[in-house]
Design brief:
Number of strands: 14
Number of helices: 7
Order of helices and strands: HEEEEEEEEHEEEHHHHEEEH
Radius of gyration: 20 Å
Number of domains: 1
Structural class: alpha+beta
Largest sheet: 7 strands, antiparallel
Distance between the termini: 14 Å
Shape: globular
Helix content: 10-25%
């Protein structure tokens, strides 16, 4: 289920999906899952917001020599979907330490069904790759209940539960911007003067890990998220997330979005480099902001693929204009990525949501039901 208040342009893609993928198979690749999506891009995520990924954050922790990994999922929780985690889902942080776009280990969160009193159990495991082939092969780090701060075997702590959505962005402006590019074939940055932050006063469910940095290795790491559903012994990957707005701004073909969400970063270059290059080239051609539009398109595709959020361990995180190093809760990622895609400064003009914590568990407190704004229905057109 997509963020229900994001305006998704309904239109045909302007680029053609590649017909072949020659990259070698990544370990534990999951096949056979149909209609995969991210943030409302396809049926599986639309049907159940509990497996719809929102955002990934990686930054230096408030405690010395710690690193924080945060996953948010379930957009508009409490309005458009439940406030709990799916009992048949796996919520996974994947970590690559040697720059081959294949995870070296992962942190898996699984949940039981909530009790009649609303208590939901959670189990956290660390799985070493590629030897481990299932959740059961992972080392149990902690068991407890949603809403509790849990100490992890080997150091660190975790928290899961309902939280305020820290993301901010001009979703209405982005929808109009993409509509102008894809349907009207024109560049219209003025659309961001309307809308504002439509993500304010919304809740999500969050998963927070605060880990001793030494347990993640040294140097640069790459991180991405997945959600998967288990059914009768089979597992299907539903969603994938690393670069903010990847499906909305960079992957405009619906079939490619499905392939992206059910796929693996190791195959991203073969699958997505040419389409993203062509799309960015088209944007800067409309905008008149690049002397060699094709070269700039290739440069951007090189920057965003394979799709992992990279972070230099032990350094201050900042997803900024000068460079991208992890991502803090308050980084203005929409403005940064719009500027990257258009090759000129472009502000989304959306104020931050506010009240982000400076200490564990970092995510904002959940908004009381009386303060949550009602959902804003997306504009729908044939083909949306």
């Amino acid at each position: 289920m997509q963020r229900p208040y994001y305006v998704e342009p309904g239109c045909q893609a302007l680029i053609t999906s590649p017909t072949t993928n020659t990259a070698r198979e990544a370990p534990r690749s999951i096949k056979g899952a149909s209609e995969m999506s991210h943030h409302v891009d396809s049926a599986a995520a639309r049907e159940d917001g509990r497996v719809d990924l929102c955002d990934l954050y990686v930054f230096d922790g408030a405690e010395p020599q710690t690193t924080v990994l945060i996953m948010t999922v379930n957009p508009d929780a409490g309005r458009s979907s439940p406030t709990t985690f799916h009992p048949q889902a796996s919520y996974v942080f994947h970590v690559d330490t040697n720059h081959d776009a294949i995870e070296d280990f992962s942190f898996q969160f699984s949940f039981a069904a909530p009790s009649a009193e609303g208590v939901q159990p959670v189990a956290i495991r660390r799985t070493e790759e590629p030897q481990a082939q299932s959740e059961a092969d992972g080392k149990l780090l902690a068991e407890g209940r949603v809403g509790e701060a849990l100490s992890l075997h080997g150091g660190g702590r975790a928290w899961t539960g309902l939280a305020g959505d820290p993301f901010f962005g001009n979703g209405i402006g982005l929808g109009a911007f993409m509509q102008a590019l894809m349907v009207e074939q024109r560049y219209d940055p003025a659309v961001f003067s309307q809308g504002g932050n439509v993500f304010a006063r919304r809740n999500v469910t969050g998963i927070v890990l605060e880990l001793p940095t030494a347990t993640l290795g040294t140097g640069n790491i790459g991180v991405w998220l997945t959600t998967s559903l288990r059914d009768h012994g089979a597992t299907a990957q539903i969603n994938r997330e690393a670069t903010p707005l990847m499906p909305h701004l960079f992957i405009v073909d619906e079939q490619l979005r499905d392939a992206y969400n059910s796929g693996h970063p190791h195959n991203d270059v073969a699958l997505l480099h040419q389409p993203i290059s062509a799309w960015i080239s088209r944007i800067v051609t409309f905008a008149g902001t690049a002397g060699d539009a094709e070269a700039y398109g290739r440069r951007v595709a090189d920057m965003v693929l394979p799709d992992m959020l990279t972070y230099q361990l032990g350094s201050p995180a900042n997803y900024g204009f000068a460079g991208r190093n992890g991502r803090r809760l308050g980084d203005d990622v929409m403005s940064i990525l719009l500027s990257l895609a258009t090759n000129q400064p472009l502000a989304a003009q959306a104020p931050p949501s506010g009240h982000i914590r400076g200490e564990f568990p970092y995510l904002p407190d959940a908004y009381p039901a009386a303060e949550i704004l009602p959902p804003i229905n997306p504009r729908t057109t044939p083909g949306a």
